[in-house]
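Design request, tokens follow.
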């Protein structure tokens, strides 16, 4: 098992326990936070897929590093799983860029989450401003080169 798979499994257990037994039961953002492991997995798969353009892989690699890093805009060490909201938003901005520059079947073959990946990304981006605030959205867009 590589580092990314190990992180994915630990993240899945941590978030599932939070959502079922912890504070996540009452969080309005639980459905989004539960996406974190599947989004992380998708990022890891896409970054090594030969059909993804190199420029997009750089954005994906940044999003992976952001997920793994203990230092980010909403730190998980302080906020618990709710701290993954900024990671999820950053990842979906990166995925949105990949979606416009990569054939749809590439994303679909690597998506292990529930529902349609394109709909999931749209839902997250629609709620992003309310989830983490406009100020953090601007910082995230600047990090990944978005407008």
């Amino acid at each position: 098992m590589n580092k990314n798979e190990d992180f994915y499994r630990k993240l899945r257990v941590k978030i599932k326990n939070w959502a079922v037994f912890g504070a996540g039961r009452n969080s309005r953002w639980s459905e989004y936070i539960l996406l974190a492991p599947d989004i992380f997995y998708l990022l890891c798969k896409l970054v090594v897929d030969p059909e993804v353009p190199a420029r997009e892989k750089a954005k994906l690699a940044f999003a992976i590093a952001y997920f793994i890093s203990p230092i980010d805009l909403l730190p998980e060490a302080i906020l618990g799983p709710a701290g993954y909201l900024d990671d999820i938003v950053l990842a979906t901005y990166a995925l949105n860029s990949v979606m416009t520059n990569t054939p749809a079947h590439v994303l679909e073959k690597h998506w292990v989450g529930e529902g349609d990946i394109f709909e999931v990304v749209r839902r997250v981006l629609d709620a992003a401003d309310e989830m983490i605030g406009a100020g953090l959205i601007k910082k995230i867009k600047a990090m990944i080169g978005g407008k």
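Comment from the thread starter after seeing the answer: thanks! The chain has one domain: 28-145.
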